[in-house]
TrEMBL record:
Region of interest called Disordered, as start-end residue ranges on this chain: 1-22
Pfam families in the record: ASTER
Keyword Transmembrane helix: yes
GO cellular component term, pick one: endoplasmic reticulum membrane
Main location: membrane
InterPro entries per the UniProt record, alphabetical: ASTER
Protein name: Protein Asterix-like
Subcellular location: Membrane
Comp. bias regions, Basic and acidic residues: 7-22
Record key words, sorted: Membrane, Transmembrane, Transmembrane helix
Record organism: Drosophila lebanonensis (Fruit fly)
Gene: LOC115621717
Gene Ontology MF annotations: protein folding chaperone
PANTHER family, per the entry: CGI-140 (PTHR13193), PAT COMPLEX SUBUNIT ASTERIX (PTHR13193:SF0)
């Protein structure tokens, strides 16, 4: 027969040679551990909630600075969110922010004045 099977002892010997030929030192292998996320800022949920609250204040009171702050909060919450699902939480937040800005500028197209001026 043209194909002859090699004896099993040769297979075991080559396996031991492969293991001993491994140049890595098993004592020095350091497993990867993902870094702990210790951000000092507010979580994206709280910033999103603050943005929605500012949007409602901007819509009801027609305060431009509330509307602008709500847009800023929405951008921050989108940038820091870990969730992939943007359409369920992020998109409605942007829609309310933009509508608050549009309503504030439709009522009074003058440039924004700061509350302390």
């Amino acid at each position: 027969m043209p194909h002859s099977k090699a004896p099993k002892s040769e297979g075991k010997a080559s396996h031991k040679e492969d293991v001993s030929a491994d140049p890595r030192c098993k004592r020095k292998i350091i497993r990867y551990k993902p870094p702990l996320n210790r951000s000092l800022g507010l979580s994206s949920d709280y910033v999103s909630l603050l943005g929605m609250f500012l949007s409602v204040c901007g819509l009801t009171l027609r305060l431009k600075w509330c509307s602008w702050l709500s847009l800023y909060c929405s951008c921050v919450s989108f940038a820091t969110s870990r969730e992939v699902d943007f359409l369920s939480q992020g998109f409605p937040s942007y829609v309310v922010c933009i509508s608050a800005l549009v309503m504030a500028y439709m009522r009074d197209p003058e440039p924004m004045t700061l509350p302390w001026n």
